[in-house]
User: Fold this.
Amino acid sequence: MCLLRFDGVSKKYPYEKSFLLEDVSFRVEEGENVGIACDVQCGKTTIVKMLAGLTKPTGGEIIFRGSGLKETPTKDMGLGVVFDDCALMPGKTALKNIEFPMKVRKLPDYREKALEAAKKFGLETVLYTKAKKLSAQDRLSVALARLSVRKLSLLALDGVSVGAERLALLDFSASLRLSSDIASLDGCDRVYVIARGKTVFEGGFASAKEYIEQTRCFDKFETADE
Assistant:
């Protein structure tokens, strides 16, 4: 069953002269781990923001479980997102960041659940450290711990690399991984390549890597062998 589908999606920001994304199409089936290889500053975060309802597409359609995104409230999607900057509240402690979404949803025992999540990700020694003072690794662990208390339909990773051991601590049905490093998409069931705002390739990891190397479709793209 198709969980998510982008059909000819485009995006142009009002302050830009040209389209950032012109014709982006891909799909994520239930139970799949899908990767998207995209050049640096060429739309990865925008794709995730459109999926999360933080910005609207200029054209095309985004379908989630058979319904348009407009008819599907974000809170009902079971979507979990980790942005490349982890999107933490810098002035709040690691613990406060983990418990905040549960507190907003008025879930019972949110402090206890936050402490359990922090322990799973080895954050006991930095629980009361403000996010702005955390290491990059600990910030990522906080972002993951925050998601670990939820059952996710789709996990979207925007430019962050998460090892299999830590992914195993999350409960998700499918994943969408977006990266400028093709090596980080190894293990995905299917990989799409987006170049110059358009989907130009769909296939397995090895074929996607070969396509990028042969076509040099990303001017600033670096493969694992370079």
User: Anything to note?
Assistant: Confidence is low (pLDDT under 50) at residues 221-226. The chain has two domains: 1-76+156-226, 79-149. The helical segments are 44-51, 94-104, 110-120, 136-148, 164-167, 205-215.
